[in-house]
Design goal:
Blueprint (H helix, E strand, L loop, with lengths): L8 H7 L7 E4 L5 E3 H16 L8 E5 L4 H12 L3 E4 L6 H11 L3 E4 L4 H11 L3 E4 L7 H5 L17 E7 L7 E6 H14 L7 E4 L6 H14 L2 E4 L5 H7 L5 E4 L1 H8 L14 E4 L6 H11 L4 E6 L3 E5 L13 E2 L3 E6 L12 E7 L5 E2 L3 H6 L7 E9 L5 E6 L4 E3 L2 E3 L1 H9 L4 E11 L3 E10 L7 H9 L10 E4 L13 H8 L3
Parallel strand pairs: 1-10, 3-4, 3-5, 5-6, 9-10, 9-11, 11-12, 12-13, 24-25
Antiparallel strand pairs: 1-2, 7-8, 8-18, 13-14, 14-15, 16-17, 17-19, 19-20, 21-22, 23-24
Helix pairs in contact: 1-8, 2-3, 4-5, 7-8, 10-11
Amino acid sequence: MPSASSLNLYTTYRSRFPDPARCLLTTPDGIAYTYADAERESARIANALMALGLARGDRVSVQVDKSPQALWLFLGTIRAGLVFHPLNTAYTEKELRYFLQDAGSAVLVCDSRRADALSTLCAALGTSHVFTLDADGTGSLTERLAGVSATCVTAATAPEDTAALVYSSGTTGKPKGIMLSHDNLVANVTTLVDQWGFTGKDCLLHALPIFHVHGLFVAIGCVLMSGSAMRWLRGFAVDAVLAALPHSTVMMGVPTYYARLLGNPAFDKAVCDHMRLFISGSAPLLAETFVEFEQRTGHTILERYGMTETGMNTSNPLHGERRAGTVGSALPGVAVRICDGQDRPLPAGAVGELQVKGINVFTGYWKLPEKTAADFTEDGFFRTGDQASRDADGYVAIVGRSKDMVISGGLNVYPREVEQLIDALPGVRESAVIGLPDADFGEIVAAVVVPVVGQVVDGERIRLALRQQAAAFKVPKKVFIVDELPRNAMGKVQKQALRDAYRSA
């Protein structure tokens, strides 16, 4: 292991690599990549990035489709001592402008189809270098690697140095950059490998996106830290997952994945015969899904709880009772408590704010010291904003989100961000965005809109307008037009009343 004064995420991964000839991942096309490929190709990218004259800690923003080469890019960025800044592939140019400007990105790697427009944007923002990388592994970044050395010395970074900058929108609608250190990521994934029993004999079915903490740091991290392998899917498709399950031992997914698998009659005990573990996260798993999954397959889903700011905090046990409707107990090294509005711990069974503390918790919000200070208690616990309870055995149940965040298909949608876009449209007086239960996505985004007096607004036109400004997963799937929004005595919109009113819509 690296010394206490020097810690690099890649070096830690590398210390756990098996025989270099061991298969790391296999694509749907049957192409196999080894650990030696990961070492060689990430070194070339690290060398190419360092040759640009970047300073340690510069941000490398990445908006590309999932591919083995995108994985090498992540590893190479970390090896070079730079900060990896993943971006959802659905983000529009308007959204990217904010992210690139706020992060002060030195490099952008994007799909070649967007290169012209984003090059113009980067020139205006001062992002010096733009490269392309497509899903098939081709692009100007790949071309630049020709002749670049396949060996490099991984940068010596401090434990507290930022390894990744991941943005999560806030209740004000303005996204916040979350600084994840090498120490944060190493500590969390080391715990997960142990708690979930990962070994070199495992093969992870990887259908998650890699611009998200779940797919990038949790899933890939567990593989690299255990020397195991992956069945690499470009995205989730039921038929592809069914084909890959007999060759896998572990699957990580969001609840939507498991609900869709249960909707296919071919998903049964036989197809899961080789599986060791199914893990669910990024959104609440319905108790009905938990029960039906066990009845259909004989496997009990392991549900856990984490956040972008913290990585994983709690988990149902690998060996022991996995309780439906709970996210398990605190992981080793993580302190969890349920508190009232004055940060006073509550007894078992009481509902309050879930607060966490540990090496896994992020170092702070990018360029927002006051926000960082406000989200931590005086004794160092992070205020998650989630409402939860904990029983006498330590099992935590998430019962609500005080910040009204919607989690649709495992992706976070912050209502205020969408409301601001809707309110700016012609004819709209105000709006309220809520989440409504959905068997497939867990929740869907819905908007309740009040028109300007005397004007008519159309729900489908609102949806169409938002598609031009926001990622598709943020666009409301349902729009309800009303004369006024319900408010309490203080004038605050009663979103729970709206959720109750439209729950069956």
